[in-house]
Design a protein that fits this description.
Layout lengths: L7 H10 L1 E5 L4 E6 L3 H6 L13 E8 L5 E11 L2 E6 L4 H11 L6 E4 L4 E7 L3 H8 L5 H4 L5 E6 L2 E6 L8 E7 L3 H11 L5 E3 L2 H10 L34 H9 L5 E7 L10 E3 L5 E11 L4 E8 L9 E6 L2 E8 L11
Parallel strand pairs: 1-11
Antiparallel strand pairs: 1-7, 2-5, 2-6, 3-4, 4-5, 7-10, 8-9, 9-10, 12-15, 12-17, 13-14, 13-16, 14-15, 16-17
Length: 343
């Protein structure tokens, strides 16, 4: 997946105003099958897959025993005996062995199906119209709710159509066989040509997810981060089945947070970048920026970062060390961008 095709700003605007097409086949896919598939996956994730119905997807964290995040995942419950787990590409070499070791039981078989699986994301306000124009027997808008999925033929390619994404917009992610991906890609681009669809790269994917306050592994979350300080406590079901890291997370929840992820916008002239120090009024470092960029939608630079909880209140002042220059910033409500809801 390239950084850009036509340019990051143009691709970003296309997703916000029309649609973008992303080749995210670099993501890792793990299939867990057998009568104990749901229970096996549940032991490794913080959310409760047992509460999901067939055809439902869950966003969740996968933690180690100390509660740190090994990866953030989406798990797709196809049936009681079949679950698909999607992990970040950079963590595939870590998550696949972890699942093979911890989820493999006499009643559950774990397979890495990443090299056989392609994933294409069609995102934006015109995404579902473009999908319909491409040809599918499923009325996605009516038949597939957010974070649900169903099998369908899209442009004569057998797919799993999931109402998921990483942009803050409506849209779908389409799983298909690796050999069919290029045919699906070209057909969708052709179907969306008159609607403003653009192929979209990693650069716009990053600015889109930042505006929507979606965490990026290695930036907002990693093995030293637990879900509560990252604002992902809603993915942790401490009253569900036991899972790796539950005791540590129960203890973490009982203690006051030492730091908290917050969103901020730049007041002075400067752009916050990953790793830049966040300062108090005296110039003392109190945290660090995890992600930062100019926002193509809002027209001003924004960022995410960890600070002490008493510095994370909306309206609080911060300063960013931009290569030795102190630049004023202000904590703001997130997500920075929220799409208009229809219906």
């Amino acid at each position: 997946m390239p950084i850009q095709y036509a340019g990051i700003s143009a691709e970003h605007r296309a997703v916000r105003e029309a649609a973008g097409l992303f080749d995210v086949s670099h993501m890792g896919e793990i299939e867990v099958t057998g009568p104990d598939a749901v229970a096996a996956v549940n032991r490794l994730v913080t959310n409760d897959l047992g509460r999901a119905v067939d055809g439902q997807a869950l966003y969740t964290c996968c933690c180690h025993e100390r509660g740190g995040i090994l990866d953030d995942l989406i798990v797709y419950r196809h049936a009681a005996d079949r679950v698909l787990v999607v992990c970040n590409a950079s963590n595939r070499s870590k998550i696949v062995p972890h699942f093979c070791k911890e989820a493999s039981t006499p009643g559950a078989t774990v397979r890495d199906v990443s090299d056989a699986t392609a994933l294409v994301a069609l995102q934006g306000p015109r995404a579902l119209d473009i999908l319909a124009a491409a040809g599918t027997g499923v009325d996605v808008a009516r038949e597939i709710a957010t974070f649900h999925f169903a099998p369908a033929s899209v442009t004569d390619v057998a797919c799993t159509v999931a109402r998921t994404g990483y942009t803050g917009e409506d849209g779908v992610e389409l799983f298909c066989a690796w050999a069919d991906a290029s045919r699906l890609w070209r057909a969708l681009l052709e179907a969306g040509r008159s609607s403003g669809l653009l192929p979209t790269g990693l650069g716009a994917r990053d600015t889109l997810r930042l505006e929507a306050r979606l965490s990026l592994y290695g930036n907002e979350i990693d093995e030293s981060t637990h879900p509560f300080e990252a604002g992902l406590g809603w993915t942790v079901k401490l009253d569900g089945d036991d899972f790796i890291g539950r005791d540590a997370l129960r203890e973490a929840k009982s203690r006051p947070l030492s730091r908290k992820l917050c969103g901020f916008e730049m007041v002075g002239k400067g752009i916050a970048r990953h790793g830049y120090a966040l300062l108090d009024e005296d110039g003392k470092a109190i945290g660090a920026c995890t992600s930062g960029s100019p926002s193509p939608t809002l027209g001003r630079p924004i960022g995410l970062g960890y600070v002490p909880p008493d510095r994370a209140a909306i309206g609080s002042s911060l300063w960013v060390d931009c290569r030795g220059k102190r630049v004023a910033a202000r904590v703001v409500r997130t997500p920075f961008y929220r799409r208009a809801q229809s219906g």
